[in-house]
Specification:
Blueprint: E1 3-7, E2 10-14, E3 26-36, H1 38-45, E4 57-64, E5 75-78, E6 81-82, H2 88-91, E7 102-104, E8 108-109, E9 116-120, E10 124-126, H3 133-136, H4 139-151, E11 159-163, H5 167-178, E12 182-186, H6 190-198, E13 203-204, E14 214-219, H7 225-233, E15 234-242, H8 255-259, E16 263-266, H9 272-281, E17 290-295, H10 299-306, E18 313-317
Parallel strand pairs: 7-8, 11-12, 11-14, 12-13, 14-15, 15-16, 17-18
Antiparallel strand pairs: 1-2, 3-4, 3-9, 3-18, 4-5, 5-10, 6-7
């Protein structure tokens, strides 16, 4: 099988990777499109020790399933955490924090930058017919964006700012805006400003920001420096939501959290059904973020393009539908 392979910080495209096998309760998925995100780039830098096939944003079709043949041929996308259902976290209703979980393309489970991947059937969500592949491939990051309002209660009167307008940051700003929240975005590149302003999301340059004035700050810069910037923006007794994952540590004065009594909230994966509903409605149509589509054989070039500052969304195409 052809696949992009990550080992010792290097990306290669191989054609000798063993074909994955779906066991009972799982499905073999033929990948159609997959997206490169900042987490994939950070894995190359050593954010988390992973060797194998990276990638976790995808759309594909179920090729085979030993226990559910009626789903074969179904167009799907998939949540990334495969869980045990038996540990204390699973029993508490927190399967995303399963003690024994494997995470698609990140920890203990090969990902989707390949011709085929395997996931539990319960992880696979049917993609509505009216959602094209170039939109469906954004389901996972849009679900992560929506997790912000799943975790904290925000009133429509509160001021929100998203620090960072990369691909995830834009999805966070866009999803908050379509839900009717009072959101602004910190932008660095003209392409980010152009897209967000077209969506009627107010944009701010770093030098124009009002310090200590936002009720909620969502940190999505993807860099250690973003935490300090976000702390500058949040008001006393405000809420700071952290979305970034990266190699290394952020250096900040944590006493500011104590003195200003700031609530700090980590935020990760989110609701796939809600994301698919928004994509199907057309209220969120992120395919205009796509910069370039590479073939699987061009995996190295695709990663280089994705790592370019200010790059749009880079996709890998495994097969043509």
């Amino acid at each position: 099988m052809k696949a992009v392979w990550l080992e010792d910080g290097k990306i290669d495209t191989r054609d000798d990777v063993p074909m994955p096998v779906a066991v009972e309760g799982e499905a073999l998925v033929r990948v159609v499109l997959a997206g490169i995100c900042n987490t994939d780039l950070e894995l190359v830098k050593g954010y988390y020790p992973f060797t194998g096939i990276p990638g976790h944003e995808f759309v594909g079709r179920i090729a085979a399933s030993p226990s559910c043949q009626e789903r074969e041929g179904e167009r799907v996308t998939g949540s990334i955490n495969a869980v045990c259902h038996n540990c204390d976290m699973c029993r508490k209703g927190l399967p995303g924090h399963c003690r024994r979980r494997t995470v698609l393309g990140i920890s203990g489970r090969n990902g989707v930058f390949a011709e085929f991947t395997v996931l539990p059937l319960e992880n696979l969500h049917t993609v509505p017919a009216r959602v094209p592949d170039v939109r469906a491939v954004f389901t996972e990051p849009l679900a992560a964006a929506l997790q912000v309002t799943e975790q904290i209660e925000i009133s429509k009167r509160e001021r929100i700012i998203v620090a960072g307008s990369g691909k995830l940051g834009q999805l966070i700003s866009e999803s908050l805006h379509v839900q009717g929240f009072n959101v602004e975005a910190v932008v660095k590149y003209p392409s980010q400003r152009k897209r967000l302003e077209k969506l009627r999301v107010p944009c701010r340059a770093v030098e124009d920001l009002e310090k200590s004035s936002y009720d909620v700050v969502v940190e999505a810069t993807g860099t250690p420096d973003g935490l300090g910037l976000s702390l500058d923006l949040v008001r006393p007794r405000g809420t700071l939501v952290l979305k970034s994952t990266y190699k290394g540590n952020a250096s900040v004065d944590l006493s500011r959290l104590v003195v200003d009594e700031i609530t700090l909230k980590g935020s990760r994966c989110g609701p796939f059904p809600k994301a698919l509903e928004l994509l199907a409605s057309g209220k969120v149509a992120p395919e205009n973020m796509i910069q370039e589509v590479f073939s699987l054989e061009e995996g190295g070039r695709a990663f280089e393009a994705a790592a370019t500052p200010g790059a749009g969304k880079i996709l890998l195409e495994m097969i043509s539908e």
